[in-house]
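INFO  loader      accepted 1 record
INFO  loader      residues=283
INFO  predictor   begin
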Amino acid sequence: MISGTDLIQRFEQFASPQLAEKWDHVGLQLGNPDRPLHRLMTTLDVRPEVVDEAIAHQVDFIFAHHPVMFHPARDLDTRNPQNAMYAKLLAHNITVYAAHTNLDTANGGMNDWLAAKLGLTNCTPLVAAGSDPVSGEPVGMGRIGTFNGSLTPREFAEFCQRLFKVPGLRLISNPADQQRPIHRVAVLGGAGQDFYETAVQKGADAYVTGDVSYHFAHDMIANHLTVVDPGHHIEAICEHQLALLFAQWQSDNPAWDFEIIENQLNTDPFTFIVNNEGKNNGK
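INFO  predictor   done
INFO  writer      dumping tokens
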């Protein structure tokens, strides 16, 4: 039998909290990790419906990508749904841990999983972030590599939609580039618009990232960078990949006899409404 603390110590050798961005809140979010670990759930988000699922499955440790306490609580009024969720977690002795931008930056982490999903080869970090404090290896946010194919921007966007199984996505592409083949691709899970210039400088034909804003999109078009925005939720790839990672560690440690389950709920807050006339904007 191991505790949550044992798992945390092993994980932080893989994705050190020192790799997280300064603004981020990674690590222990809530609860007592010293308690014995019997059943763990992996999830992208910790939302009330996810907590209810964890309680139904008698989970005692939630391992999330997005911090549950991204914004500090101003009070503990449980009429607030977020505070009520904290109270429910505490009442059921569920520990919550989050690995966010440290998992994004770590070698073998989030952006390697997304790059592998896209089939990219010869990958290097998109945005250098120094060295891993444990291994000493170079690390960085995002990945850029070779795409094995020759798709147009529209075809590449359709490929991404099928690959990530999203009901809709946004394609940002210069009209002059509609037949330009995609060979070199950058990817950064989450909100990566701030790094589009780095993708351009490193020769990317296309950049896959989420949460692109209106004015950034115009600048991307001006720079002849095709951008596919499939949303933030594609990072849900972590639910299965973290489960695989923990299972691998279990195979190396017979005492790690806890059960691993993956969140089965879709926590994407957005619903896509299809325009039957096939128009892309409201003009």
